[in-house]
Amino acid sequence: MAGCSSAECWRHDTLNAKAAMGLALIVVVVTLATAMQPLGTDLYLAALPAIRNEYAAKVGVVQLTLAVLVFSFGLSQLLWGPAADRFGRRPVLLTGFLLYTAGAALGALAPGIEVLIAVRAMQGLGIAATMVCGRAIVRDLFEQQRGTHVMTMAMSMLAFLTMLIPVTGALLTEALGWRSTLWSMALCGVGGAVLVLLRVPETAPALKPDALRLRPLFAGYARIARNPAFRSWTLLNSFGYAANFGFFSSSAYLFIETFRVTRVGFGLVIGGASITYLIGTMLCRRWIAADGIVASVRRAGFLSLAAAALLIVPQLADAHSPVTLTAGLWLMLLAYGIHQPCGHVGMATPFPLQAGAASALGGFVFAAAAFLCGTWMGLLYRSGSAAVLSLTTGVLAASTGVIALTLVQRHGRVQPCGPPHPESSILHFKGPS
After folding, report:
1. In the chain, how many domains are there?
2. pLDDT of residue 324
3. In 3-state terms, what secondary structure has residue 316?
4. Is residue 399 part of a domain?
């Protein structure tokens, strides 16, 4: 738009993108971009014992097929975020879906565990690109309060899907073998790529030609990392994500091999966690409308502490069963359904012109925390014992609650460091200041 100011051009471009897509399509795109991660992990969980048996591999080695995916996912976000700022969200999102598809297809054909580990790293690259762009699209088009509402809508849709993903993975493994789970991932990746090609316009307010230059890139990351609001929101989601990943990556062996829960029964446990996560996203939408983001996270902090107690206390009495572990998991996911959408939006809000980079740095920290947790639990795994699983995830859940009640309350209310957002020149927050 000739002669417009920076803020006016931003308003014009983002309103055009929103008009071209519409709210429903935006939510679908963000949901699908975010769904690549649970598809890459949850669809595959019930297959882990079968993979170990086929390749005669140790639990710690099989765990690498998850941990390497998460590490690749986290590390590559540091480049995908700036790439999304440099080239735009659309081409990076398309590349992510294609990489995800290729990694899944090659994994389904893997002749050995080493090849499977390597191509799962390729899938991690694809997940990183889609996740970064999904979060950045929300930040491009909406101010923080509205963006959080949109993110919770996407997370609610995702929760409906993830209720089915673990059970579907278990049924596929039972009927067609574990490789069928990877073929299913490949089909989903193809669907995402087609959607981007046909319906998704560019949403970035402006491209940054120097976004991939190393010196300003790392200087920008340093500036983002120094922001106390970014650190608070990122730590909140990092501990929560690590707790969830640790439980999901290690629980299949305990439930299926020690407690003799069927694969489908285990899938229902993980699917039930998606239901409580969905309830959390619904509570999040209601609470932020009434009291704002920071107050909502405070309430969820108490839920995280309660989940930690359910995970830790029975272990101290050596009394864990599938029921007690499931209760702890479900309550932990209820709290995470509130923490996650708030954290995704909160960490990017201070940086409207670097939303991709902020999302990438935050995503890297999330994934690094999950990688360390998964590796730790794989190395310390002891057949027949719930101690490593329950104590590790319990401590992480407790840490999430403490961060929600302290750092987020102190630093979570933020103003964007850049031109005003097209929908609002000031971010309004309800609740106590």
Report:
1. 1
2. 96
3. helix
4. yes
